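Review form for a predicted model. The reviewer records the input and the model, then writes brief findings.
Reviewer: anonymous (R2)
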Amino acid sequence: MIWTFWEKEMKRNLIALAVSAAIVMPGVAVAGMSMDAPTVYGLMDLSVDLESIDLDDAALAEDAASNWAVNSHSSRFGVKGHSELADGVKAFYKIEWQVSADGDGDTFKQRSRYAGIKTDFGSLQLGKFDTPMKKSQGKFDLFNDHAADIKTVTFGENKESDLIQYTTPKIAGMFTAKLALQPGEENEVTGGCTADADDATKCKDGLTDGFSLSVAGSQGPIYGAIAYDSDIDGFD
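Model under review:
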């Protein structure tokens, strides 16, 4: 009994070490593992816009005229990659920063950053990334990150921290389901639990305090999806 427990713990620890090695030592050959060099990528998205001020907003009433402005739209750079841990087992990772390409605002800002494992049974990833609800939009957001972004007319455009997501392999060659959990975690300011957004007397300290799920499918030119969010970082 003791040997079986020790053996299981050793296997679990070895898998964790293998994933860590795949992330911190890309491009290094290790017995039984194939590690590719990381991919460094980036996007500089700038525009010159004629902006009109909403005079119904009293706080903006001092600037009544329209004005020209140079804007940066989620310009970014990052590092991503994957490594074969074993036959049919792949580790993947991504670290991305947003940059203020027009010189305004913060120079660096966190975007997606996660690590995970993918097999024939699906993938599991941890970190900060787009929720299943946000990803379910597919390619409908033609003006993504610009003034006409879909987020100006609808909710659900959330990139969240502390997510645990499982993604199924493609089902029947058409459908993919995703489920992301968001634990409430400890309040970093008070040291206590995070209060529920709807009921301050309740503590958000479980594994499934917030969740996002989606089912999406495509066949030829047809695409459809259904998604649902619950208490994702305060959003219902």
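Findings: The two ends are 46 Å apart (CA to CA).
Further findings: The helical segments are 2-24, 132-135.
Recommendation: see findings above.
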